[in-house]
Amino acid sequence: MGILQEILLIAFVLVAIALIALILIQQGKGSDMGASFGAGASATLFGSSGSGNAMTKITAILATIFFVLCLVLGSMTANSTKQTNEWENLATDSAPATVPAEEKKPVENLPPEN
């Protein structure tokens, strides 16, 4: 994994966390009616009309960055070679595999021990 890929992966995670947090902060469309009657928190950080526009724009920008990073990281890792697992084939490196049945000698054909 190259240094560029690691930087893009860190940026991808940070954008994803920021996008999730921003979406959770936003109010739903149905909350406007309750806020007009005094039931909701009508005093927002950006004012009553500006919060939707600014947060919607930031959400759209973060979503675009998220999808672009997703496509770039996907294309970078699509042609990379997969590392082999050293635990896959233990028989060839250390101990021999079990002996097949036709190579085993019967007990009666063994020479006598002295």
In brief:
By secondary structure, this protein is an all-alpha fold. 54% of the residues lie in helices and 0% in strands.
Give keywords.
114 residues; mainly alpha; elongated
Would you mind describing this structure in some detail?
The protein is mainly alpha-helical and 114 residues long. The chain has helices at 3-25, 31-36, 50-78, 90-93. The chain has a domain at 12-22 and 48-78.
Pattern of helices and strands: HHHH
Largest sheet: none
Put simply, the count of helices is 4
Ranges where pLDDT stays below 50 over 5 or more residues in a row are none
Mean pLDDT: 75
What gyration radius follows from the Cα positions, in whole Å?
A: 32 Å
The counted number of beta strands is 0
Strand content: under 5%
Distance between the termini: 62 Å
Q: Give the overall shape.
A: elongated
Structural class: mainly alpha
What level of helicity do the residues show? 40-55%
